[in-house]
Amino acid sequence: MRKRAPLDLTRSVITAIGVTLLAYVCLRAALTVVRGSYSATTYASQLIFGLAQGGIYALVALGYTLVYGILFMINFAHGEIFMGGTYVGYFVIDACARSGLLAQKPGLALILTAITAMATSVTMAVLLERVAYRPLRRAPRLVPLITAIGASLFYQYSFRGLFGTTVKVYPDVSLHVGRIDLISGRYSIGSLTVRPVYFVVFGMAVVLMAGLYILIQRTKLGKAMRAVAEDKDTAALMGIDVDKVIVATFALGAALAGAAGVMYALYNKQVTHTMGFIPGIKAFTAAVLGGIGNIPGAMLGGLVLGVVEATFPTLLGMDVQLKDVLAFGVLVLVLIFRPTGILGEVLSRKRA
What we know:
The chain has 14 helices and six strands. With 352 residues, the chain is mainly α.
């Protein structure tokens, strides 16, 4: 009888651990629901917030997955791209508030802020690609990875040097549609308190994600991006400008991150030079959760991660401060059973 290989034994042990953890989570959740420890409105409010937060994670995760799909590298400076757009956007919306434009035409002020944030993020990403990544395109994979970490620290401390360590706070915005304040309003539906800004953020995130998906699938640029992701050398022989496609990829991911940053600041308010680190790590986690290199996977992973963070602490009867532990725990559980992520990107498995 053939002895079981050590690798097979290790996989069996890991799977057993995963099944045990999954059973424990399901049991704790079932007990919490049966005991009625929390009301349905508590879960509903947390789910609404989780979808909004997940939309932010998904938009940032798309930047990671786009770059990985083209260059097969993790751009760990992407969290700072998110931060940079949000930070510069603060000065625009603050100027609008001081001039009275925010009170008179809040929609125009928000559009100006979003455009500035997206332009800033795109500029940072394109400079990063041209200066730091392009010369290393043929280098071993560890080299651009270390460079990305260095670029992340460079951007972070550059903003600290330019603008200081003081926390910047986005001003309150009132954007009325009829009697509903979409940004700052709080409304009660029975015992459920609803903030329309969460629906606005989630809706805008879905629109942007749908727009990106259509661009990738239906446009000439999208076809060129998919061709470069498949084989750069062959794409170049077919007449595709590989450098321009890569720059466009960085720009697209950065634009989504800049838009996500403004939406994030509308309800989170505070902006600092370190604010990109945690959302960046969470977005990277979302990309891996959904299947790194898979655009629908990044979208789904972000939404799942946001909902898990918002609802699982309550559902499992745990302290809300453990939400990060639960989020990464879900990632581990998913990877135990689906090593390529929820949607499982085959291309990344072949070439990673």
